[in-house]
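sorry to bug you again but im stuck and you know this stuff better than me. what follows is a protein written twice so to speak, once as letters and once as structure tokens for the fold. mainly i need to know what kind of three dimensional shape the backbone takes. anything you notice is useful, everything is just below:
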Amino acid sequence: MLTQVKLRFVRGSASKMRPLINLVRGKGVLEAKNILSALDDRRYSKTIIKLINSAISNLKAKGLNQKDLYISKITADNGPVWKRFRAASFGRATGILKRTSHIKLELDLRR
């Protein structure tokens, strides 16, 4: 592992991010960015691209080229849940769960 980047408290459930994350796990950095940019209609693709770009910029300071890097590990875990209420019929209130998640990304050199 050359670098580890964490993005915490992302507004969105981890279960909706995992299908995107599974597409790029084990791929090269440039290939992963191309896959995610093609999936522009998915809500969290831009967030994951920003995370990958942040990890690349951390390694560029060390003098490494992005062609040699690949995503060795990427996970999306559940974060805290915001509990809110909204009005319902007959004077009741129903609960709303606003979910958050934590994304963890590790880059490594291709061998």
In short: The chain has three helices and three strands. The first helix runs from residue 14 to 24.
